[in-house]
Amino acid sequence: VSGKQAIDLGRYDGLKDLETPCYVFSPEAVIADYKRLREALGTPLIVSLKANPNVDLYVRCAHVFTDGVELASIGELNLAVARAAVTKFISTPALDSTLISAALASRQTIIMLDNLAQVHLLLTHGKASSQKVGLRLNARALLGNAMSVAHSDHFGMCTDDALIAIKLLRKAEVAVAGVHVFAGSRSFSKYGLAICERAHGVIEQLEAALDAPLDFINLGGGFEEQWNQAEMAVYRERVGELQKRLTVFHEAGRAIFQRGGTFLAKVISVKSVNDRTFVVCDGGIAQAFLLAKTEAILKRRKDAWVVPQDSMRETFKGVLEVVGNSCSQSDVIGEIRDSIIPVPGDIVQINDCGAYHTYSPTGFLNLRAPSKYIVS
Ligand SMILES: Cc1ncc(COP(=O)(O)O)c(C=O)c1O
User: Fold this and answer.
1) Do the strands 371-374 and 22-25 form a parallel or antiparallel pair, or are they unpaired?
2) Which residue's CA is minimally distant from atom 8 of ligand 1?
3) Which ligand 1 atom lies nearest to the CA of residue 257?
4) Which is the closest atom of ligand 1 to the Cα of 182?
5) Residue 199: which residues within 8 A CB-CB, separation 6 or more?
6) Which of 99, 225, 245, 283 is the most exposed place for a label (fewest CB within 10 A)?
7) Series of mean pLDDT values for 10-residue runs along the chain (376 residues)
8) How far is CA 292 from the centre of its chain?
9) Considering only CA atoms, which of 190, 192, 260, 191 is closest in space to residue 225?
């Protein structure tokens, strides 16, 4: 196998025994990427579990993920509860009574209230005043028209609603510990610096309404899978200014998990039609939805690599398209370039698949779920 690999599968025995299609996760790679980003930021780093809710991987990384985890569902709360004594930030516009009750019953939870309806809902709960809360601001509350309407989303509240929320929560003696803003995935290069700079004004406004200092602000992040070191150095300086006032958090998903996961599928057959050659595998869009790039405008396929069963193989120059086992026309998940010629039984490997591997539209065709393995 050639190519840049976070997980060098050649180091491990038993590749042939893996049940395909499958993901192989490396706690070592995930921990290395978590530490690298945290160090570059110079702030605590919250882990977005939605990016990889694999419990075995979490357990292996929990000793490093000590700054906190960000959760958006009761399923994610169940995953984190009792597995690590760590702050659990619960943040979802779909917060309901059940999730509030679960948060109240669990230790070290902070509910980041998304809107005024959630404030009212929380206050109907008996022990609300014992619950740590924060407020989630919409990114445009900080950025205003500097954020295009196309980039804006439905998460969090505007500043006016945050001020009303503070009034309601103060009256009910619920302490507001902090605020959270997330401008969206891969938004860092565009909005990171502006959010950091504009945070000062919003913090002043909210602290005046609270008549108390905030403990923290979570600036979100929106870091790319491969963030830029030079850009980060400039950003870190600005963050330093904010850190003089309060604790600053960031959170990340794809930048932590992407490199630490590899997708493997077995070759079922190789066929040519209309001058294109396809490598048909036992897994594809149904197990690795994002690889099919159905939501991308420019469908730049990921590189795929052939892991041969034996060493005697001919090579070819050109491109083979890797397709999966569904009957969807969109089931093209990668491209093999200038490689050895694959045959049935070989394994196709696609690197950098560790984030959002659970993201899937449907359970179409009842195809089997991918197996998951941890290497260490
Ligand atoms: C509130 C919040 N924080 C963090 C993330 C993680 O985003 P990414 O994986 O792009 O870092 C998400 C992703 O949807 C999110 O909704």
Assistant:
1) parallel
2) 253
3) 9
4) 1
5) 142, 181, 217, 219, 242
6) 245
7) 57 79 96 97 98 96 97 94 92 97 95 98 92 97 93 96 98 96 97 97 98 98 96 96 97 97 97 97 95 86 90 89 94 95 94 92 76 91
8) 18
9) 260
> Is the CB–ligand 1 distance for residue 252 below 6 Å?
yes
Q: In a 10 Å sphere around its CB, with 0-12 CB exposed, 13-18 middle and 19+ buried, how is residue 44 labelled?
A: middle
CA 184 – ligand 1 centroid, Å: 7
Closest ligand 1 atom number to CA of residue 253: 9
- 255 CA: nearest ligand 1 atom: 11
Q: Is the CB of 180 under 6 A from ligand 1?
A: no
Query: What's the sign of the alpha-carbon dihedral 204, 205, 211, 216?
Result: negative
| Confidence (pTM) | 0.95
- Ligand 1 centroid, distance to 70 Cα (angstroms): 9
Q: How far is the C-alpha of 90 from the C-alpha of 87, rounded, in Å?
A: 10
Residue 107 tokens read as: 């230790």
